[in-house]
Amino acid sequence: MPALSIIVTSYNIENYIAQCLDSVVNQTLRDLEVIVVDDGSTDGTPDIIRAYADRDPRIKPILMTENSIGGVATPANLGLDAATAPYIGFADGDDYCELDMFEKLLNAAEAGDHDLAMCKYKLLDESTGELADPAEVNRWNDLDERSYELDVEAKRDFLRFIAVPWRKIYKRSMIEREKIRFPIGDYFYEDNPFHWFSIISAESIAVVPEVLCFHRVTRAGQTMSTADERLFKIFLHHNTIRDWLTEREIEEVYRANLFAWVMSQMEWISERTPKELRETLFDCLRDIYSQYDAADIEAALVAGKKGLRAKKLSDSLAKNNLAKFNQFLDGRTRSNNPFMDGLYHLRYSGVRHTAGLASQYVGRRVSGMGNLTGRRNASEFKLDDVMFSLAVLQAQIKQIEEKLDTLVEKQEKD
């Protein structure tokens, strides 16, 4: 029996599949089975897969004759059905990984008999060749251990990481015991439910805080490049996840976290939605918001550490007010009162995020003072200039403290 099964999924990626397979078959971990599932490609991808399988007996090709519905679910599930090793990993056919990635993940998982192991990754911009960090990068700063027992609070923390499966490995006995599969339907981003199912089912996780794989973005034909109403189908996963939680009688435990996940998708997608599709987006979100009350919204804002954008959009959805929804997205509801903005950010985004915003605001104000003192070069500032600026800032801080106290007191009364 191999030590690890790696499932590689592909569809019309003849320009990339060889690089992916090279990075997989040349892993320092040699005891592998590589299950390559092609989702009915119409280009040269299947021929490349066959050629690799002819050269390496560890490669097991599964070549579908027709493209399946939705995204990666059907080919990924076929790979799960075929896997035989104690642990399972994934690779997107247009990505590539470091040659020691799976050895490091497997060693970390086996060291504590963990259900999961996870590493960092980078985004590779196909158009420029530049590497970038994913949005989750700062969350790794909170991980000071190399493994975690997954109680409810720990599971909530790991649920906030990006849901991609190809930087993790999974214990196959857990996958089979919990009957975890990717949901099949006319939608994409099926890795989101899979992420929820596996994190909540796992008892422990190992973390490897190294960048070990590289995910290609902005590639033509890629799901992530799509900025139209197909993106809205990600919200269908809310009901899939909620039904799964309900069946296990833990929906209340994770309700705020699931709703916060919806808000995160709403924030990201609403920024990319053209005006002519906003009503469609609004309707998709209303179907979800109608399932929750005001207390649920408040709890989700706190659980997700959400700021003004999520709150404003949530308010308009809770009140079924499409006009307000559009006004906010048009940028016409931005507060002119920095104290109110600061209060909301302090309440929903936390002290660290609010402090960063305040620093930027004060920096702009100080820069403005420099412009008012005769447009001198910053290096020409004298001690009295600095002292004057500090005095003004001290007065502003005192005013902010007084107004903040008043606003907090008013909020508590409300």
From TrEMBL:
Assigned keywords, A-Z: Coiled coil, Transferase
Matching InterPro entries: Glyco_trans_2-like, Nucleotide-diphossugar_trans
Coiled-coil region: 383-413
UniProt keyword annotation of Transferase present: yes
Keyword set includes Transferase: yes
Superkingdom of origin organism: Bacteria
GO MF entry, a single one: hexosyltransferase activity
Residue intervals of the Glycosyltransferase 2-like domain: 5-175
PANTHER family: GLYCOSYLTRANSFERASE (PTHR22916), UDP-GLCNAC:BETAGAL BETA-1,3-N-ACETYLGLUCOSAMINYLTRANSFERASE-LIKE PROTEIN 1 (PTHR22916:SF3)
Protein name (Swiss-Prot/TrEMBL): Glycosyl transferase family 2
Protein's organism: Cognatiyoonia sediminum
